[in-house]
Recover the amino acids of this structure.
């Protein structure tokens, strides 16, 4: 079994770079995209095992990208972790979690992100999806 | 006879004011009002003098506030602040009790201030703030993450001095993120964003979850949270995120301004056609002079008593915005050193 590949989609280059450092420190293989359109393309070319997706992106936002991937029979099984930057106190409550869930994301994490929490969420998603993957 | 001259010129003086003034006696009979109040409240002619307030004033919220001011005989009950909408005018009203030299309640005085024009200016400012805030959020988010990477040792080991400095950078950056988030909340409320998604809400469920979120903050200061939520309350139509923001700000403020080992009491119950949310604390209280301004954006009491308390000055303006968007009212009672009580009424529809 090779390294697990994570596709990271976010329009903020600094955030992408920092998140990449965290994930690579845990020996994940990281592919990046800087907007929704590029993200959708990279899903096909990179075939990631997991996608981390920012909500606030120009043109196609994270919710739309998520819905597109999830409705695709070829890629719909890939777990998606949605990142958003809405107000922290509000966003960590059940309501916005449900908002993310409606788009069929597998988990949701508010910005600003703590490295430890990000890694935990990623590991957790891999644990859950392990049973499903053949 | 200077006193006589004063008396004769009092009416022209009152009529030349830009704000409305309405005075009642202790029984709630109208005893004085100026032309501005007459127009703002649509009072007909001079025949309202000597008549009961509720016979001549159509705005229920105002009548309720006046009656409440007259019926509450608490010494620290100083002023009621509320926004009312009547037609095209948006009025901000302050109702204060009038007392004679011995402290006996002899009536009430209401100041009415038209804030419609201010509202329009506010909206332009909100759009601007929202744009700027979004531009600020991304770099702050990245900076926090980059700092965390360094602090967590992911990019290599650090000595204590470096760690200490980075922790300070992170704390400051987080404070700025809080500020930006609050600004976004305020501008979203003012743009009417929250009104767009209305659903039937169980306030007790939302309040309980808010309290769960706030428990760690209270425990840090050994503050006990006393909670009294009435069973089987009716649902109200509202916006979930904004009601959450309102609860979070009310409760976190109470905790923030209450010294260690104090108490915060949170009540939710039905009160006639309204749901009443009451948050009281045993904290430092609010200066009388400051009460009319506490709902203003960025207003914070700046004194020796509050200098160690951090905050953005936006929490209560968020609360006020949410209350207004739900056609509710908010009242505050406070005395310095003896805590504060915020009472929100939200109509059941």
């Amino acid at each position: 079994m090779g390294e697990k590949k994570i596709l990271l989609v976010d329009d903020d280059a600094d955030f992408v770079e920092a998140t990449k450092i965290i994930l690579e420190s845990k020996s994940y293989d990281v592919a990046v995209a800087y907007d929704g359109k590029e993200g959708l393309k990279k899903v096909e070319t990179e075939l990631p095992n997991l996608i981390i997706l920012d909500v606030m992106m120009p043109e196609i936002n994270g919710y739309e990208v998520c819905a597109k991937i999830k409705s695709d029979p070829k890629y719909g099984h890939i777990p998606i972790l949605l990142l958003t930057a809405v107000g922290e106190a509000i966003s960590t409550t059940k309501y916005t979690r449900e908002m993310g869930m409606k788009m069929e994301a597998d988990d949701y994490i508010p910005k600003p992100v703590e490295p430890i929490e990000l890694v935990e969420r990623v590991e957790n998603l891999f644990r859950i999806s392990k049973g499903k993957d053949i | 006879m200077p006193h006589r001259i004063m008396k004769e010129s009092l009416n022209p003086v009152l009529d030349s004011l830009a704000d409305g003034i309405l005075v009642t006696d202790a029984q709630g009979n109208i005893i004085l009002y100026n032309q501005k109040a007459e127009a703002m409240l649509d009072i007909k002619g001079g025949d309202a003098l000597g008549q009961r307030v509720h016979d001549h004033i159509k705005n229920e919220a105002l009548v309720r506030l006046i009656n409440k001011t007259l019926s509450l005989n608490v010494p620290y009950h100083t002023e009621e602040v509320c926004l009312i909408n009547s037609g095209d005018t948006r009025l901000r009203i302050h109702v204060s009790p009038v007392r004679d030299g011995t402290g006996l309640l002899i009536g009430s005085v209401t100041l009415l201030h038209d804030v419609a024009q201010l509202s329009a200016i506010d909206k332009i400012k909100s759009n601007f703030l929202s744009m700027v805030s979004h531009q600020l959020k991304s770099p702050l988010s990245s900076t926090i993450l980059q700092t965390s990477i360094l602090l967590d040792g992911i990019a290599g080991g650090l000595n204590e001095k470096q760690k200490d400095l980075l922790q300070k950078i992170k704390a400051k950056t987080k404070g700025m993120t809080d500020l930006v988030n609050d600004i976004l909340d305020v501008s979203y409320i003012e743009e009417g964003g929250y009104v767009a998604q209305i659903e039937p809400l169980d306030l007790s469920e939302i309040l309980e979850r808010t309290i769960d979120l706030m428990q760690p903050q209270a425990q840090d200061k050994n503050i006990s949270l006393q909670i009294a939520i009435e069973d089987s309350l009716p649902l109200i139509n509202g916006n979930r995120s904004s009601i959450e923001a309102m609860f979070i700000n009310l409760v976190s403020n109470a905790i923030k301004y209450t010294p260690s080992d104090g108490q915060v009491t949170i009540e939710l119950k039905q009160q006639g056609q309204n749901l009443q949310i009451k948050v009281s604390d045993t904290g430092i209280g609010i200066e009388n002079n400051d009460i009319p301004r506490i709902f203003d954006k960025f207003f914070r009491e700046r004194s020796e008593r509050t200098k160690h308390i951090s905050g953005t000055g936006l929490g209560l303006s968020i609360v006020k915005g949410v209350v207004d968007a739900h056609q509710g009212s908010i009242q505050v009672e406070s005395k310095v050193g003896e805590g504060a009580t915020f009472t929100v009424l939200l109509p059941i529809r």
Summary: The interface with chain A takes residues 134, 137-146, 148-149, 152, 154-155, 174, 177-178, 181-182, 184-185, 209-210, 213, 240-241, 244-245, 248 of chain B (CB under 8 Å).
